[in-house]
Specification:
Keywords: Membrane, Transmembrane, Transmembrane helix. The chain has eight helices and two strands; from the N terminus they run αααααααββα. By secondary structure, the protein is mainly alpha-helical. α3 crosses α5.
Length: 182
């Protein structure tokens, strides 16, 4: 006798409505047990870069001032950039301090720093580029690791703010961007 026979005995009646009801009850019970997804606010969706969550060390702010050539920098933004840079490269926490120590000890002109580090083939050579790129573009990391940490408040947009506005919002009514200009 074949054990793979799936036919029902003649006295069993298959009721499709009953099957539908049972499968609906099973689905309902399963959905009660599974966690459900909830919408997240902006701060919840990017907690690692939430404003105020990280304070940048004074050494990072100081080396950032030297490299960007700006005497005042946004401290909240410094925290965001520092956290992103440290997350992208775990050695960054030590490397930025070493870079600051080299600048202070040797009293290197910031305009000559990158050339000097490249010439010496220093392991710190990428650090000034990473810091300046983060401040001016708001992007940390390269390729698939790239993260946009700031946009409107990055230094490139702040420098050009008197002439240009970052294209982050539609300045007209909803859909006005879709109509051809007159």
């Amino acid at each position: 006798m074949d054990n793979t026979d799936t036919s029902y005995p003649e006295d069993v009646v298959v009721d499709p409505h009953r099957r539908l009801l049972l499968s609906g009850l099973v689905a309902t019970c399963a959905s009660l047990v599974m966690p459900f997804a909830t919408a997240q606010t902006h701060a919840q969706s990017r907690p690692q870069y939430a404003a105020g969550s990280v304070t940048a060390p004074a050494s990072f702010v100081e080396v950032s001032r030297i490299l960007t050539g700006r005497s005042s920098l946004n401290i909240a933004q410094a925290g965001l950039l520092y956290r992103a840079l440290a997350h992208d490269d775990f050695a960054f926490e030590i490397q930025h301090r070493q870079l600051l120590a080299i600048i202070k000890d040797r009293q290197i002109d910031p305009m000559q720093l990158q050339k000097l580090l490249d010439t010496q083939r220093s392991t710190l050579a990428p650090v000034p580029r990473e810091i300046v790129t983060a401040w001016y573009t708001g992007i940390v990391g390269v390729g698939e690791r790239a993260k946009c940490v700031t946009f409107e408040t990055n230094l490139l947009n702040l420098i050009a703010a008197d002439k240009l506005k970052p294209p982050s919002y539609s300045y007209g009514a909803y859909g006005s961007w879709a109509a051809k200009p007159v």
